Amino acid sequence: MEELDTVRAELLQSLPGDISRARNAYRRMAQAAALKMDAKSFAAHQTACKAGLSHLEGLIKLLRWASGPDAAENDKAKSPAMEEAKIRRLIAEARGALQEA
Q: Which of 62, 83, 80 is nearest to 71 (CA)?
């Protein structure tokens, strides 16, 4: 278990910088799309951009894992679907309280 904690600690140190570099590289690559004129070059460029986004997504998931189970649960709790469910529940409770009054 100590080894896993060590890996998590190392990842927590390095991943934010890695994510920033990957994001900046993606941004540069995406901006270069305006320079691509023919369809074949543009299609290849789009494929490369998609690969860059997948890489960035993987780094973010790894950061969430390294942050521990609490961070992943907090992310789920803040998701739009969870927020919407919370709002619906509050509305239902308020309606119930009004009917009782």
A: 62
Q: Could you tell me the pTM of the whole model? A: 0.61
Residues 48, 43: Cα–Cα separation, whole Å: 9
d(C-alpha 40, C-alpha 16), whole Å: 34
**How far is the CA of 16 from the CAs of 10, 66, 67, 92, 101, in angstroms?**
11, 11, 11, 41, 52
pLDDT digits (tens, 9 = 90+) for 63-86: 999 998 765 555 555 677 878 888
The two three-digit tokens of residue 81, written as one number? 């679907």
Q: Give the model confidence (pLDDT) of 16-55 as tens digits.
A: 999 999 999 988 888 876 676 688 888 888 888 889 999 9
